[in-house]
Design a protein that fits this description.
10 helices; mainly alpha; two-stranded antiparallel ribbon
């Protein structure tokens, strides 16, 4: 079984190095750690009294790994979820914050385990996730990944500026979609034709 450190390193590899896309709500980001997170934690790597894009640029992989594990895995309590769900929910927590838990909560409701959709991984959600896992242990991660993929498409529907993260310039699957499908069994991946049909109305 992969360790949380291994999973964090995989997230860092997916996130890549420093980026500061004006259309990304996360702002300046490196290895999955945003400038907003660094400000909240008071990480001032250049010693100028604040946390800004220059500090993000200086962030090491080792420091980033520690931040991901403590702030995006341990703090929200993802370790309380069934093991099958932990890698994908952890990855989504890094990518979209509390939306990761909200997606899970909506999925659990669809599976007959209604819980409050509040983005908080409390006892009710944890218990529901365990029961849903026990009922469908071979499918729960796929179901979550499919819901995650749908979430990204809906974001593109509502916010044209974000479509470039879900669809490449040539019309193929963008980073968000391929990232979601990393956690979905290949038989549930969308074909290129299906992806293009889903995004056809985006112009």
């Amino acid at each position: 079984m992969r360790s949380i450190t291994d999973i964090a390193d995989e997230i860092i590899a997916r996130e890549g190095g420093y980026v500061n896309d004006p259309d990304d709500p996360g702002g300046a980001t490196k290895y999955g750690v945003t400038v907003h997170t660094m400000r909240r934690l008071g990480i001032d790597l250049d010693g100028d009294g604040d946390a800004d894009a220059e500090d993000v640029k200086r962030l090491s992989r080792e420091r980033a790994r520690a931040v991901l594990i403590t702030q995006y895995f341990e703090a929200p309590g993802i370790g309380r979820l069934p093991t099958a769900l932990q890698p994908t929910v952890f990855d989504m927590q890094v990518n979209a914050g509390s939306q990761a838990i909200r997606i899970l909560q909506r999925l659990l409701g669809d599976m007959g385990e209604p819980v409050r959709v509040d983005g908080i991984l409390g006892p009710q959600t944890v218990g529901a996730a365990r029961r849903a896992h026990d009922a469908a242990p071979d499918h729960i991660a796929d179901a979550y990944g499919i819901e995650r993929r749908s979430f990204y498409y809906r974001l593109g529907d509502r916010r044209p500026a974000l479509r470039k993260f879900a669809r490449r310039r040539d019309g193929g699957k963008g980073g968000w979609i391929t990232r979601a499908e990393t956690f979905i069994a290949p038989r549930f991946h969308l074909s290129d034709a299906e992806h293009r049909a889903r995004t056809r109305t985006w112009g």
